[in-house]
């Protein structure tokens, strides 16, 4: 288990929030990420997308942390997010976990896709007008 670190990236000219989680996230870490993502997304005004790069994250086993990830989806949707483009590389396990969080969130208004690279996720977001 490695220590949690969050990297944030700007995508100039796009209404896209982009973060990279590294290591083991706690429930408190996820709440901080959610605050950042929602604040940044709202700053765009209107519809926006989120590209979480999750391939360097450790699996989440803690129930409270899993609930916080599901809550993130709901709060993003309520704040105008229309799409999550997960960058999971080739990691099937982390992709399955992200899908579980999406299903648990009941955030029906968010389109969700999974990509091997950030560039693929950005292209998809552009096709949605973001």
CATH homologous superfamily - what is it? STAS domain
Number of strands: 5
Q: Which fold does the CATH topology refer to?
A: Transcription Regulator spoIIAA
Shape assignment: globular
Question: Which strands sit side by side, in order, in the main sheet?
Answer: 1-2-3-4-5
Helix content: 40-55%
The CATH architecture is 2-Layer Sandwich
Mean pLDDT reading: 88
Number of domains: 1
Tell me the span between the first and last alpha carbons. 35 Å
Overall structural class, as computed from helix and strand content, comes to alpha/beta
Encode the helix/strand succession as letters: EEHEHEHEH
CATH class: Alpha Beta
How much strand content do the residues show?
25-35%
For the report, how would you describe the main beta sheet? 5 strands, mixed
Total of DSSP H or I helical runs spanning 4+ residues: 4
Query: Whole-number radius of gyration?
Result: 13 Å
Describe the structure.
By secondary structure, this protein is α/β, with parallel strands linked by helices. It has one domain (5-125): STAS domain (Transcription Regulator spoIIAA, 2-Layer Sandwich). 44% of the residues lie in helices and 27% in strands. The chain is built from four helices and five strands. It has helices spanning 27-43, 63-78, 92-105, 118-127, and strands spanning 5-9, 16-23, 48-57, 81-87, 111-115. It has a five-stranded mixed β-sheet, sandwiched between helices. Helix 1 (27-43) runs parallel beside helix 2 (63-78) and helix 2 (63-78) crosses helix 3.
């Amino acid at each position: 288990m490695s220590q949690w670190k969050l990297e944030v990236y700007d995508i100039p000219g796009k209404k896209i929030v982009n973060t990279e989680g590294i290591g083991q996230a706690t429930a408190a870490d996820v709440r901080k990420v959610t605050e950042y993502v929602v604040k940044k997304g709202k700053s765009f005004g209107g519809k926006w997308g989120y590209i979480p790069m999750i391939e360097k994250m450790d699996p989440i086993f803690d129930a409270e942390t899993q609930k916080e990830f599901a809550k993130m989806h709901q709060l993003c949707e309520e704040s105008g997010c229309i799409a999550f483009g997960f960058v999971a590389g080739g990691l099937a396990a982390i992709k399955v976990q992200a899908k579980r969080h999406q299903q648990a969130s009941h955030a029906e208004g968010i389109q969700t896709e999974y990509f091997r690279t950030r560039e693929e996720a950005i292209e998809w977001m552009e096709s949605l007008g973001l």
